[in-house]
Amino acid sequence: MTINLKLKFFLAALLTVFFTVSYAFTVLRGQNNMDELLRQNLPKSQAILSSALELKHAVVLYDDLIFRYIATSDPLLLEEIPGAKKNADANIESLKKLSPGPVMRGLLSDLIDEKEAYFSDAQKLIAARPKTDVPSEKQSILEMIKWARSVPERQTRLVLLSAGGRARLAKLYSLCDRLCDLSKQDIQNLQVRSEETSRTSRAIILWSGGVIIAASVLLTLLLALSVLVPLHRLLQGIKKIIGGDLAFEIPPSGNDEIGRLTQAFNHMTRQLKEKEERLVKETITDALTGLFNFRYFQEVLKAETERSRRYKRPLSVLMLDIDHFKKYNDAHGHEMGNVLLKDLTQTLKDSLRPSDMLARYGGEEFVALLPDTDDAQGKQVAERLKETVCSSSFPGQETQPGGIVSVSIGGTSTSAAPASPRDLVLKADKGLYEAKEAGRNRVVWTGA
Hints:
By secondary structure, this protein is of the alpha/beta class. Helix content is about 75%, strand content about 5%. The protein folds into 2 domains: about 5-210, Four Helix Bundle (Hemerythrin (Met), subunit A); about 290-445, 2-Layer Sandwich (Alpha-Beta Plaits), CATH 3.30.70. The protein has helices at about 5-70, 75-95, 100-130, 140-240, 255-285, 295-310, 325-330, 335-350, 375-390, 420-435, and strands at about 290-295, 315-320, 355-360, 365-370, 405-415, 445. The chain has a 6-stranded mixed beta sheet with strand order 1-3-4-2-5-6, sandwiched between helices. A hairpin with a 2-residue loop joins strand 3 (about 355-360) and strand 4. The longest helix has about 100 residues, at about 140-240.
């Protein structure tokens, strides 16, 4: 459905009223959502506080069991120690699942590290406690002496481990207390934010009316600009086309009257440009092979010859001719001859550099322009082209001499001395003639 400009203005006014009413409801709903969000966050903060306290209590119990066991060697206490550790680990997992903030996550990471280190030290403390078992009389005097000497060493180790464990335990208590303090602060902050949000929302409702009026005026201005700007662009586009810039297109601006006019303008410029490009291509290319024609080749040759002379860079020209092409046409017809010309063209193009230029000279003859190529390099390229054609498979080649399609090539370059475009073509053509006279399927290079 197409909307005309008058209807656009009417809809803009209607939308202004609609947005005004909707905005008020949106503000109220946003306030309710914020309050609900804050209410949902309070239980989480309280859960973090509770888990932190439980964790501290579990660590206290674990520490108490450790030292009671060391003091009494009661095996029942040793059985309760894993339960206290499991309770501490469970509270750590609860804190992780509650997704605390970045500060709390940092504290929790430190707490986990300290907890693991403390539990490790505690196990070492259990292992290092002095054994009360005295060697029996049946054991040797040496065993009793060894046991007696080990007692002071174990006691010293026990004292050291006990001191280190106390230091880690104090740090664990401190981290748990900081988690509790942060949780309490979060709860207070949530309560304050809830009250401030409620007051802010009521204030927004009072001045939102003025904002909506200003937005409505701005919308009207933007709508007017949405009409005037495309019209101005269209006028500029027409001037560009008159000036000959067929590549210019106007960005689409909708599907109204101006938008459709813009689309029609762009379609017209694209058609004009395509016709211009097609005309230029038809002027400089060969219709059968798609290669550049010899007339365009001569223009490029003039420019490359001048560049070669100015910058003292070598330039080579190759003339190629399909051997016994008339015999091929007589055996297979002109349509197959055209197929051979197309296939050979692709073979030659694949064997040349992107910077090289291949053109159709006429009939079964081709000419190649090789920038920055001296005598030695040019000969190598010519030989490679000849060998590539000989080794390639073409339809109907079995009727040709030797059962292959071959080419004769004549070439020359500016390596020895600067030459005019005409001289380069004549020398390359002379080399081609000599290659034909010498038996075909060969390269003849003509020097200065």
